[in-house]
Design brief:
This protein is mainly alpha-helical and 411 residues long. Among the domains are: 1-43, no CATH class; 305-411, no CATH class. It has helices spanning 40-43, 63-74, 76-89, 93-104, 112-124, 128-139, 146-159, 163-175, 182-195, 198-210, 217-229, 233-243, 253-263, 268-280, 287-299, 303-316, 322-334, 341-345, 361-366, 370-380, 390-405, and strands at residues 2-7, 13-18. Helix 11 (217-229) packs antiparallel against helix 12 (233-243). The longest helix has 16 residues, at 390-405.
Length: 411
């Protein structure tokens, strides 16, 4: 089709359209009129424009958006896991189930990271049946990570306190020929120590020993707390002996628990005997070790033993903490021996800043003394800008103690 520019009698250019198959189409460019629109050829490759707005009627598609959309289509399988995690996090379980079915019908191979996040999301909403269904559907995938998927499910059930499902899943995993590793075994025992009864915990510990795994420190603490909160101190002592007092990778934890089991019932001879055995085997007493003995000496008014213990601390270069000062102050004040406090305090650095370094499980058994509780309350609500010392705390406590013993008559 050709466009020919003509001029009318009013000197206005007129555009005529001629079909290429018409008779005029055979005319050469030299036969075209001399007057034509000079801007036509320069704009023939441009888009058709609105003469008023000068904007194209038809816009070319945005190539970057098109490529991004194409990229999303190509990565359909990689976006579905993220979508499913979003559904489970927001409790949209019906949509999550539909998405999971799409993933199963695709060539998607779930990763450990994805399944871990998925199980945690379902566990947070207490949707344990969905975890079991997903675990069973993963069996058909024949994934190389299937043993790890079982371990993730066991960990989720245990952390949520669902010991029954944890036990059933463990038995199912073992029946398939998969072995439990040391980490999961410790988590298994930890869950029974936290959520199970004393008999369940001990039975789980018996199975754990037969697996010949090494029990970790946090599990030892959890089991020890299980005995302590039930006031089973004899069983606590037997437990730490069974674990092995010669272990040094947990520090003095086992020895301190053993000493605490005797101090709880104020078996002073056994306490001293085991302390000497500890030192003889090459274990260096720490602040918790000394404070277990100091608390027992203070409550039993064994002041000479308390003095010797403080001297031993100085020789071992163990710095006393707030618990140690509390043993001294409470021991003397409870027996109306406040005037003799300087005899002991002169051997201690009362100008240090107060701090508590004793292991918290000691307080679960022997509690906190009156000086310790009063000092903590004062330090929590203190308004002074300067740092307080043990000397300041002792002065304030003695002042409060003397006022408490006075009788005021109101007339």
């Amino acid at each position: 089709m050709q466009i020919i520019s003509l001029y009318s009698h009013i000197n206005t250019p007129i555009l005529l359209l001629k079909h290429p198959h018409s008779s005029s189409s055979s005319s050469s460019p030299q036969q075209q009129p001399h007057h034509h629109n000079p801007n036509f050829h320069s704009n023939k490759n441009q888009s058709f424009q609105n003469p008023t707005s000068k904007k194209p009627f038809f816009h070319q598609p945005n190539s970057s958006l098109f490529q991004n959309h194409k990229h999303k289509l190509n990565n359909k399988h990689s976006s579905l896991p993220s979508l499913m995690l979003y559904y489970t996090e927001n409790a949209l379980f019906h949509q999550a189930q539909t998405t999971w079915e799409q993933l199963l019908n695709s060539s998607f191979n779930p990763s450990l990271n994805f399944i871990s996040k998925l199980f945690k999301s379902y566990s947070k909403h207490r949707k344990f049946d969905e975890i079991i269904d997903i675990l069973h559907s993963l069996n058909s995938k024949n994934s190389a990570f299937l043993p790890q998927f079982y371990l993730l499910a066991i960990s989720c059930f245990g952390n949520a306190g669902n010991l029954k499902l944890m036990e059933e899943t463990t038995n199912e995993m073992v029946s398939k020929g998969f072995q439990m590793d040391a980490k999961t075994g410790n988590e298994f025992l930890l869950c029974y120590a936290v959520f199970g009864s004393l008999n369940e915990m001990e039975n789980a510990y018996g199975r754990f020993k037969r697996s010949r795994f090494l029990i970790e420190e946090n599990v030892i603490r959890a089991m020890a707390y299980g005995y302590i909160k039930r006031r089973k101190f004899y069983e606590l002592g037997e437990f730490v002996r069974d674990v092995g007092l010669g272990r040094k990778n947990v520090g003095n934890l086992l020895w301190n628990l053993l000493l605490l089991s005797y101090a709880a019932n104020f078996k002073m001879k056994s306490l001293q005997k085991e302390f000497l055995s500890m030192v003889k085997l090459g274990f260096r007493p720490d602040i918790t070790t000394f404070n277990i003995r100091a608390l027992a000496f203070s409550k039993m008014a064994l002041f000479w033993d308390l003095h010797l213990s403080i001297e031993h601390m100085r020789s071992e270069k163990v710095v006393p903490d707030l618990v140690t000062y509390g043993c001294v102050v409470d021991g003397y004040m409870d027996r109306k021996l406040g005037r003799n406090l300087d005899f002991v305090l002169n051997k201690m650095n009362v100008d240090d800043c107060p701090r508590v370094l004793t292991d918290p499980f000691v307080f679960e058994v022997l509690g906190k003394g009156d000086f310790h509780l009063s000092s903590e309350a004062f330090l929590e609500y203190k308004t002074q800008k300067h740092k307080l010392t043990y000397r300041d705390l002792i002065k304030k406590y003695l002042k409060k103690h003397y006022r408490r013993d006075q009788i005021f008559w109101n007339y």
